[in-house]
């Protein structure tokens, strides 16, 4: 599927791709992605590995790409905070609302200088200073 997307984007003259990925590929604080641990649930491994294959396809494609995932999971029952922070480290215990994740996704698509990176989105900490999208930090 990723190869077809790359082919279609090239034919359409599109060189930039921002896509939603999966948290299980983000390395944790020890530097290991959850999908690479023995404790990762076997039933989720094929889905995560398919995302990894897509990520590797985009890396090799020459496209300017950014992968954006929740650093942990979605929080469908919480209210949006109106902000977010970007991280390169995953934490499967964190939760982000769909609205806050969408804001990060759109910001990265519209204004980001971040390319060739897989970023996690976490809720903005209360009182955190804002920053521009395009670097790991808060918005």
Q: What keyword list fits this structure?
A:
globular, disordered C terminus, four-stranded mixed sheet, 3 helices, Rossmann fold, 139 residues, two-stranded parallel sheet, alpha/beta
Describe the structure.
With 139 residues, the chain is α/β, with parallel strands linked by helices. It has one domain (2-123): Rossmann fold (3-Layer(aba) Sandwich). Helices cover 29% and strands 19% of the residues. The protein contains three helices and six strands; from the N terminus they run αβαββββαβ. The protein has helices at residues 2-11, 45-61, 98-111; strands at 16-20, 64-70, 73-74, 84-87, 95-96, 117-123. It has a four-stranded mixed sheet, with helices on both faces. The chain has a two-stranded parallel sheet with strand order 3-5. Helix 2 (45-61) links the parallel strand 1 and strand 2. It starts with a helix and ends in a 16-residue tail after the last strand. The model is unreliable at 130-139 (pLDDT under 50).
């Amino acid at each position: 599927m990723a190869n077809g997307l790359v082919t279609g984007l090239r034919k359409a003259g599109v060189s930039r791709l921002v896509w939603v990925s999966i948290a299980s590929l983000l390395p944790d604080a020890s530097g290991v992605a959850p999908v690479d641990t023995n404790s990762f649930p076997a039933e989720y491994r094929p889905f995560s590995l398919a995302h990894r294959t897509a990520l590797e396809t985009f890396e090799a494609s020459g496209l300017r790409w950014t992968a954006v995932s929740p650093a942990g999971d979605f929080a469908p029952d919480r209210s949006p905070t109106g902000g977010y922070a970007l991280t390169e480290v995953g934490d499967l215990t964190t939760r982000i609302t769909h609205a806050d994740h969408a804001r990060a996704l759109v910001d990265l698509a519209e204004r980001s200088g971040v390319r060739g990176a897989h970023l996690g989105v976490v809720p903005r900490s209360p009182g955190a200073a804002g920053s521009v999208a395009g670097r790991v930090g808060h918005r």
